Amino acid sequence: MAFRVTGPGAAGARAAGRAGGSGAGPVRVKLCGATTPAQVEAAAAAGAGYVGLVFVPRSPRALGAEAARALAWAAPVGVAKVGLFVDPTDDDLAAVLDRVPLDMVQLHGSEAPERVAEVRARWGLPVMKAVGIGGPADLERARAYEGVADQLLLDAKAPAGAALPGGNGAAFDWGLLAGRGWALPWMLAGGLTPGNVAEAVRVSGARQVDVSSGVESAPGVKDEALVRAFVAAARG
Ligand SMILES: O=C(O)c1ccccc1NCC(=O)[C@H](O)[C@H](O)COP(=O)(O)O
Question: Single GO molecular-function term (predicted)?
Answer without folding.
Answer: phosphoribosylanthranilate isomerase activity
